[in-house]
Design goal:
- The protein is α+β, with helices and mostly antiparallel strands.
- It has ten helices and 14 strands.
- β8 and β9 form a beta hairpin.
- α3 packs across α6, α4 crosses α6 and α6 runs antiparallel to α7.
- The protein binds N-oxalylglycine and nickel (II) ion.
- The site of nickel (II) ion has 4 residues, from loops.
Amino acid sequence: MTLLSLQRNLPVPSVQELASEPLDAVPSRYLRDDVDDPVSNPCNPFLQIPTVDMSKLLDAESQAEELHKLYSVCRDWGAFQVVNHGVADELVKSMKEKSRDFFNFPLQEKKRYAQKEGSVEGYGQTFVNSEEQKLDWSDMLFINALPYEDRKYNFWPDRPQGFREALDCYSGEVKRLALSLLGFMAKGLGLEAHKFSKDFEDGLYHVRMNYYPHCPQPQQVVGMAAHADFTGITILLEFDETQGLQIRKDGYWVPVKMLSGAFLVIVGNIGTVMSNGIYQSPHHRVVVNSLKERLTIVTFCYPHKDAIIEPAHDLINPENPALFKTLSHAEYFNLFYSRNSYYDEPWFIDILKIDA
Ligand code: OGA
Ligand code: NI
């Protein structure tokens, strides 16, 4: 099998191991000279990412107003926090505990789940396809949680006890939330809910657990370089409101301050395509700090394998022509993986445009 460029996935050292030793200097593969100032818009330094209330979307009386908010937030930011989302606190707590326990195991234990060549699934890092490339200051465990037939349980840690059960339950709940959100995102555009949600009912839900160790040179290092997600939507959980994620808006980085118990939702490139460019898929990145590690659990939501990725037909008319190509699932992913770099221009969304 010949691998497409981004499928190559070269192995890299565990950053958690690096950071656990007394470090005088960060190895040069992690040092960047292009980490610009992580301050938000000087004209609006307190700008905060908006919050959408799921209970208001579900209540007939408040729905219209909250739908309008959801629509404008997806249009102007392509990201929001969601509260009253209905995912049980206990489950979230258990999922966090199990992932933290996993990362706290010795390297040998984690390596039992190490990625295999040509696949991102497992313990390691993603999108490393050159020895020269700058590296992110993080480790991850990546698991294809849904659909069931895609599960490879050899990548599901059997320790700590209860990890598998928690992930099974968590992925089901996050999927339920995703379907509901996608339905409302369609409604916000004046479409029937299922126009967006139906392709995600048997969709792909890939869970990535990220561990960002503390870093002695946070100004020259990033936890995750700037990128847009190539999902429909992404649903992110941050542990302990540690901070570090920044969203690009109007040319500035806006630090995300998570509300306790909320999820962050990020619209991905497929979300932009389905909305024919009305919903943004923002760039975002992770900065690191010198004191404390940071953990997140990120669920990438994609349509099912027979879905067609294209703008919703009801949004297209002579005044609003389709801006993006019509692609099969396989064409979309092949196009993605054949890029030389995830982190450089041309951005994937521009490749998806009809005139590209
Ligand atoms: C990602 C991502 C951000 C974070 O995994 O695509 O953007 O805060 N993660 O972990
Ligand atoms: Ni992302």
